[in-house]
Amino acid sequence: MPIGLIALAVGAFGIGLTEFVIMGLLPEVARDFAVAEATAGWLISGYALAVVVGALVLTAATTHLPRKRVLLGLLILFVAGNVLTALADAYALAMIGRILAALSHGAFFGIGSVVAAGLVAPERKGGAIALMFTGLTAANVLGVPFGTFLGQQLDWRATFWAISAIGVIAFAGIAALVPADRSVTERVSLRGELSAFRSTQVWLSLLVTVLAYGGMFGAVTYIAYTLTEVSGFATGDVPWLLVLFGAGLVVGNWLGGRLADRSIDATLIGFIAALAVILALFALLAGSGAATIVALFLMGGFGFGTVPGLQSRIMGYAGQAPTLASGANIGAFNMGNALGAWAGGVGISAGLGYTSPIWIGAAITAIALVVMIAAAASAARRIPAASETPVSGATGTIAVAR
């Protein structure tokens, strides 16, 4: 295993941490800046929206540059954004810092995947990319609970100083361990990549991603308030409860990938339906500590279990132009983050209580289920079995329908 993959995974760990750790620290951030809970939640929504911009604009703008150099530049931007967040003495400056850090997110994962695949033999590319994304999973299982604990014990700013340090370590690791591009990077035809968006199924896949991930994120964004104000847990319990959620992400990601190899659409319909049910039950039973513990694990499992199938589906229907479509799907995940955070904040601001984000998340997920069923039915009608053109995706093979 090339050691450069570890450096890429460290970068993925830091980026994943800066996106998600603030969920457990929203009460502290809101108190520090003297803003409402919903306003503090915009530090999550703003980050997510900036990821959308970075995933598309920065990826397209840097396709002609050496990939290693681009990765290093993205990490400089990442560190600068987190340092600004840590130093911010006003909410607006913290938001600017979050946006700067977020711009590097989508481009890093998109370009980093290509670099990771190039470090190994062709038959090992999938494993190399999976190893890099292990950093993102580890950020949820280990980094978020530890970062939340650190922020609660010292100060929420200490967490962002720690994230900045991780960014510096990742920069040094990539600079030292990832080899320079062996050949001149080929220019990617933007026109060719845009051709993927002629597919109705690509657009439907993007919509499902926004809604399915938005439903889960609507519940998760304000989870610290739900756990302490509704479920009756102490503030100090939040970090280990987030470990349960993170464990669900790991199991769901593994299981969702395995099942998507057999049938992408069936897996997505099943997982999205299960997520809608879990969210509704969680909202009903949030006053029970035991039910909350189970719900957190299952919510993470069924929510993140959709990710392999969603990414694979859009790559398959994009045909021979998957790069920009794949980046757009990363943006769609973060559009979902923004939608969920905003919608959950609306519920709280309207005085509907701290279970309202969960109910809203369940409703958004139910809409995602309807769209996914319609997309699957449309694909089945358009492609007779004998005329399907298989295209290999990240987790399976699906047929192209345009």
Distinctive features:
77% helix; mainly alpha; two-stranded antiparallel ribbon; 16 helices; single chain
Total count of helical runs of at least 4 residues:
16
SSE topology string: HHHHHHHHHHHHHHHHEE
Q: Give me the secondary-structure category.
A: mainly alpha
Molecular shape: globular
Q: Numbering strands along the chain, what is their spatial order in the largest sheet?
A: 1-2
What is the first-to-last residue Cα distance? 39 Å
> What is the radius of gyration?
20 Å
Q: How many beta-strand segments?
A: 2
Assign a percent range to the helix content: over 70%
Q: Look at the structure and give the mean pLDDT.
A: 81
Strand content: under 5%
- Extract low-pLDDT stretches: 385-402
Largest sheet: 2 strands, antiparallel
Question: In words, what does this structure look like?
Answer:
With 402 residues, the protein is mostly helical. It has 16 helices and two strands. It has a two-stranded antiparallel sheet. α1 runs antiparallel to α5 (91-118), α9 runs antiparallel to α14 and α12 packs antiparallel against α13. It is globular, with a radius of gyration of 20 Å. The chain starts with a helix and ends with a strand. The model is unreliable at 385-402 (pLDDT under 50).
Helices, strands, pairings?
Blueprint: H1 4-20, H2 26-33, H3 37-61, H4 67-87, H5 91-118, H6 125-153, H7 156-177, H8 190-194, H9 200-220, H10 223-230, H11 238-260, H12 264-285, H13 289-304, H14 307-317, H15 322-349, H16 356-382, E1 390-392, E2 397-399
Antiparallel strand pairs: 1-2
Task: Describe the structure in brief.
Helices cover 77% and strands 1% of the residues. The protein is mainly alpha-helical and 402 residues long.
